Write the structure tokens for this entry.
Amino acid sequence: MNNNIMNNKGFTLVELIIATTIILIVSLGFFGWASTIIQTNLSIEKNNTAYSMAMDVAERLQRMSDNTLIQKKSGSTSKCVGYASSGTYSGTLTECRNAADSAVDCSAGDPNKTGSYLSPGTTGMTRYTNPNYVTSRLYLYDNNACAGQMWIDCRSGLTTASNIDAAANGSIDHPNAISSAYDSINPIRSYKNTTYYAVWTVAYMPCNAGTNTDRRKILVTVYWLDPEPTASTASGALSSTIKSVSIVTDKVIGTES
């Protein structure tokens, strides 16, 4: 009888070890799955936050009256866009180019397959609003200095401290200087320990429209750094991955012909 009791106890211990191992394996799988779900939800939330900010910036720009940003610049160096009718970029927003395709040309240009591709992408609008168009430089980074502040309260310190690096993308219209015209549009906003940055450009269309076009394309990119950096300089921030959301909206002034 004693031998039977010993054998039964031994068998129960083996079962316990097997059951414990199974539970551990299942638990590891569950926690791994739960972690993936949490990270996915955080990524979706950040994308939604950036998209909402981009829409807010675009709507504010659409409501603005004629001003130095919305008014078309004179000369062929203006940013003009159109929809390519042929080639690789058929049906997508493209820069206007001159007949030889050798330079951007608003007054005598046409959108074609050799122009810069301007549809939204994973790193923002190519050329016009990509915050990292020049490698290893970041257009706007404040090291969280503007957290909880409006643009009018922190813009002066940012520009003097070279937190706006215009050389990272010379095509971005704003923010690019201390300008009171856009105090109502805050380009730096923080939400749940992440700082979001908005940059925008206004292009004019169609090509060959001269200076009389009333139609504008507002190109907005909102980006953030993941993970949120703690570096004190913009160059240090580039060790993080730049993620972004980009949109294109219309601005029509007066009556469109």
About this structure: The chain has one domain: 41-252. The first strand starts at residue 81 and ends at 83.
